[in-house]
Amino acid sequence: MQPLLASGAISVDFDLTFLAQVVLFSTFIVVLKPLLFDPLLRVFEERERRTDGAKREAREMDERAGELLSRYEAEIEKVRREAGVERERLRAETAKLEAQIMAEARAETARILEDGKAKIAAEVARMRGELAAAQPALAAEIAASMIGREVRQ
Fold first, then answer.
1. What does the angle CA 81 – CA 82 – CA 86 come to, to the nearest 5 degrees?
2. Is 148 left (phi over 0), alpha (psi -120 to 50) or beta?
3. Spatial separation of the C-alpha atoms in residues 91 and 84, rounded to whole Å
4. What are the tens digits of pLDDT across the range 21-64?
5. What is the chain written as a DSSP string?
6. Alpha-carbon distance 142 to 75, whole Å?
7. Rounded to an integer, what is the distance from CA 81 to the centroid of its chain?
8. Which residues, including other chains, have CB under 8 Å from residue 138's CB and lie 6 or more apart?
9. How far is CA 144 from CA 131, 135, 139, in A?
10. 81 pLDDT exceeds 90?
11. Which spans are transmembrane here (predicted)?
12. How far from 58 is each of 15, 50, 61, 76, 123, CA to CA, in Å?
C-alpha cells in the first residue's frame, strides 16, 4: 500500500457524465440568468439606490431641522427680548401711575386734613363765642354755688 501523498500523478477521467454536467451547468446559467439572477441583481441595486436616497433625504431633513431649530431659537430669543422691553416699559408706566396715584392721595389727604382743621377751628371759634357769651351767667352761677346765695350781675 502506498500512501496517497506519495503518489505524484493525479488521474482525472473525462467521461460523458462530466461533459453532461458541464452542458447542464451552462444551460442552467443561460436559462436562470435572465429569469433569476438579473431580476435579483436589479432588486439589490434598487434597494441600494433607495437606501442611499433615504439616507440622503434623512441628511437633508436633519439639516432642515437644524435650520428650523436655529430659526426657532432666534425667534424665541427675539420674543424674550421684546417681552423684557415691554415688561420694563410696563414697570416704568406702573411706577409712574403709582407715583401719580400716591400724589393724588396725598393731595386729597392734605385737603381733607385742611378741611377738618378748618371745621374744627370754626367749631372752636363758635364754642368760644358761646362760652364768652355765657361766661357772665356761668360766673354768677359758680359764685352763687360757692357762697350759697344768688349773685346779680
1. 120
2. left
3. 10
4. 999 999 999 999 999 889 999 999 999 998 998 889 999 999 99
5. ---TTT---------HHHHHHHHHHHHHHHHHIIIIIHHHHHHHHHHHHHHHHHHHHHHHHHHHHHHHHHHHHHHHHHHHHHHHHHHHHHHHHHHHHHHHHHHHHHHHHHHHHHHHHHHHHHHHHHHHHHHHHHHHHHHHHHHHHHHSS----
6. 92
7. 13
8. 131
9. 18, 14, 8
10. yes
11. 18-41
12. 59, 12, 5, 26, 93
- Which set of grid coordinates corresponds to residue 126? 363758635
Grid cell of 142 as nine digits: 359758680
Q: What does the block give as the cell for 114?
A: 385742611
pTM listed for this prediction = 0.42
Residue in the block written with cell 361766661: 135
| Amino acid letter for position 33 | K
Residue position matching grid coordinates 368760644? 128
- The three cell numbers of residue 91 are 414697570
